[in-house]
Specification:
The chain is mainly alpha-helical and about 600 residues long. About 60% of the residues lie in helices and about 5% in strands. The protein has a two-stranded antiparallel ribbon with strand order 1-2. Strands 3-4 form a two-stranded antiparallel sheet.
């Protein structure tokens, strides 16, 4: 049955569960299955320590068992909140049952992957101990029970009787949470701090996974767990608080980021964190060009290379052909200024183009930069960059007598070289975030959005499109050059092959653009999250390097199909890519009897 109210059409067609079970029975199966899976994590899963993580110990979960343990606890909490237990209702302000199904699927996926990995690496199912079977069977029971729970939302008016796949997809949706009760400001700030604390712990755990099997299990449980928390409405509640306390949120985010190197004992993981920040900062600069101004730049990595080469030439490296050494602040300004100049020089003659033509020109610029750096070797051209050998032996930075290449003891924790550069890059990221935020909220930022949506209409309203596009191009280039100055010192050397359009190792133009699209164009946190995922996953899954570009393409296709607005989308993108049920133009309805109209002149 459909009910039409005003301009919004609402469907009240009842949605039945995937498996027809009585509601109390289905919820009891979820609780029992989750409890069984939880108990199984305290039993041995295999008999030998040849499988990484030492899953042979009874009474002490380790490795993949910890992930199943966490997922089982999350499923239990969501399932118990459906009973109306006092103190658990806040867990599900949005969907009541879809979070249970998603969490149960995460447990089942992680446990099933662990059992499959053990069987594959050790030579068959015979290598599984009873604990693995207990957790696997418990996870399966929880999934079957979750499929029998009532669906959170009725079917839409456009598809009142979907097929099985449509019913499964619909069972994973949930309504938006209602308005939250007003809390004291200090409580809201504590909730924000707790949220970022949980985020720091999850990120630190993921980046600190020591073998690929554990990292794949982490990805499975993290993906389903994050989606379950989103469907429960917790993320929207947290987003409402962060929007209310924006400055507190930014402070909490950077406080959590500062704590990251203190959670790592392996210098390799701190190095991954530093490279993620470099990649994320460059992606945020590209977000100015693509996300705000709507200019498709396929050669953006060249501006990172310009900043890196400029910093390397004035770094005092023995291989530098200039033979000078600038202090840190001067080297940073040199890299940013060089990229700015290149941005203006390249943008001035090309930004009168639009769409695909602009994309082709910027792609050409990226390749021209790489070829030029190769040719400035003293044979094909002047000896400036040492050609394909690049500029090696770049010395470590020294800021106010603080040598970043030497470990330092801070609060009883040793900060390694990588941790030092991570903290330096974090300062640069804060600067770029501040520039992006101020630019997006200014008149210039609103003009960029107007040009992105419809340049012809923006020009007709008096906006100087060419000048503002050139400003966006120059600003994005200078931000990339800023990150390039640090990248040169972190990697000890710069070579032309580091700055390609596409390749197996980020950063490159394709991965930078993908980070912006994956995270969410026009947002601050979107490119940061997208860049972190696109750098961390290849760094952890080295054994899949040969198939990286194939998997990268598949992931982009799935993203465009199921989440075209990105992981973190602004309101405009959500309305653009998803049906809201609201008409584009309000219905022309006559005024009720006795109502008084207002003439145009009177208005």
């Amino acid at each position: 049955m459909d009910k039409t109210t005003g301009t919004t059409k609402v469907s009240t067609a009842e949605a039945t569960p995937i498996i027809p079970l009585p509601h109390p029975v289905a919820r009891a199966l979820v609780v029992a299955g989750s409890a069984v899976a939880l108990i199984g994590t305290f039993l041995a899963w295999t008999w030998t320590e040849e499988f990484p993580g030492n899953l042979t110990v009874t009474g002490y979960p380790g490795g993949l068992q910890v992930l199943t343990l966490f997922g089982s606890v999350l499923t239990l909490l969501f399932a118990l909140s459906g009973y109306g237990i006092k103190g658990l209702g806040w867990l599900t302000p949005g969907g009541k049952n879809s979070p249970v199904l998603l969490a149960a699927l995460g447990v089942f996926g992680t446990t099933g992957y662990a059992m499959g990995a053990i069987s594959q690496e050790l030579g068959g199912l015979v290598n599984l101990e009873p604990g693995a079977w207990v957790s696997g069977i418990g996870a399966l029971i929880a999934v079957l029970g979750a499929l029998g729970l009532p669906v959170d939302q009725p079917y839409g008016a456009g598809d009142p009787d979907p097929n099985l796949w449509g019913r499964i997809r619909h069972s994973l949706t949930a309504p938006d949470p209602g308005r939250a009760k007003e809390l004291p400001s200090w409580v809201e700030i504590l909730i924000i701090a707790a949220g970022f604390g949980v985020g720091l712990y999850v990120f630190s755990y993921g980046i600190g996974t020591e073998y690929s099997e554990l990292f794949i299990g982490f990805l499975i449980i993290a993906a389903f767990g994050f989606t379950a928390v989103t469907r429960a409405g917790l993320l929207k509640r947290l987003s409402a608080l962060t929007a209310k306390h924006r400055n507190v949120t930014l402070g909490a985010a950077f406080a959590a980021a500062i704590c990251f190197p203190f959670t790592q004992s392996n210098d390799q993981f701190a190095l991954i964190g530093a490279n993620i920040l470099i990649f994320a900062t460059v992606a945020l600069g590209l977000n100015v060009v693509v996300g705000l101004a709507g200019l498709l730049d396929l050669g953006y990595v060249a501006f990172l290379g310009v900043g890196a080469y400029a910093a390397a030439l004035v770094s005092g490296s023995p291989a530098s052909t200039i033979g000078v050494q600038f202090p840190f602040w001067a080297a940073v300004l040199t890299g940013a200024a060089a990229s700015l100049i290149f941005g203006v020089v390249i943008g001035a003659p090309t930004l009168r183009l639009r769409g695909d033509y602009l994309a082709i020109v910027t792609l050409g610029f990226g390749e021209i930069f790489r070829i030029t750096m190769n040719n400035l070797n003293g044979n094909s051209g002047p000896d400036v960059t040492n050609g394909s050998n690049g500029i090696p032996q770049i010395p470590d930075l020294e800021i106010f007598g603080f040598n970043l290449g030497v470990p330092h003891d801070v609060i009883g924790h040793e900060l390694t070289r990588s941790a030092n550069y991570y903290l330096l890059m974090l300062v640069f990221t804060a600067i770029v975030v501040m520039v992006f935020r101020r630019s997006a909220e200014s008149r210039i930022g609103r003009a960029w959005v107007a040009i992105r949506e419809d340049e012809t209409a923006a020009t007709a309203m008096g906006i100087n499109g060419f000048r503002l596009k050139l400003l966006a191009f120059a600003l994005g280039a200078s931000l990339a050059g800023l990150a390039g100055t640090v990248q040169a010192h972190v990697s000890y050397s710069v070579t032309p092959e580091q700055y390609q359009f596409a390749g197996p190792v980020p950063p490159n133009s394709a991965f930078l653009l993908a980070a912006v699209i994956l995270g969410g164009m026009g947002t601050i946190s979107g490119p940061l999250i997208g860049a972190a995922l696109l750098y961390l996953i290849p760094a952890k899954l080295q054994f899949m390097a040969e198939y990286q570009l194939l998997l990268f393409g598949i992931a982009l296709m799935l993203l465009m199909r199921f989440r075209p607005e990105g992981l973190v989308a602004d309101r405009r993108k959500q309305l653009e890519f998803h049906e809201t049920g609201q008409l584009d133009v309000p219905e022309d309805k006559p005024l009720p009897e006795g109502a008084t109209g207002v003439a145009k002149a009177g208005a």
